[in-house]
Amino acid sequence: MEDSPAVAKRREREKKTISQMIALYCEHNHKIADQTHSAYCGESVCEACAELDAYAVLRTQRCRKMDVKTSCEQCGNHCYRADMRERIRAAMRYSGPRMLTRHPIAAIRHLLNR
Hints:
The chain is 62% helix and 4% strand. The chain is mainly α and 114 residues long. It has one domain (5-112). The chain has a two-stranded antiparallel sheet with strand order 1-2. A hairpin with a 5-residue loop joins β1 and β2 (44-45). The longest helix has 25 residues, at 5-29. It is globular. The two termini are 22 Å apart.
């Protein structure tokens, strides 16, 4: 089933936001010399963060509840593997407060779940 234009726009925005969060986490927690890969948002990340980024973008692309969901944490359908869930939580925990200075519009939209 194909997304409505509004859901497709939201899905694309969520993929970019999660990618920006992972890139911000990587920038401040991993060596710059290791950041040789490109995240979905276009920013440089290390190999491990590139793997996490690709996984998060894929999970967002395949989300069946995008039209009604508020956040992955509150969703009844947990689609992240346990190991990846812990990695994404760490990245989001670190990046969340810092997104307001780096990507303020994305951060506010994410907080408002729109």
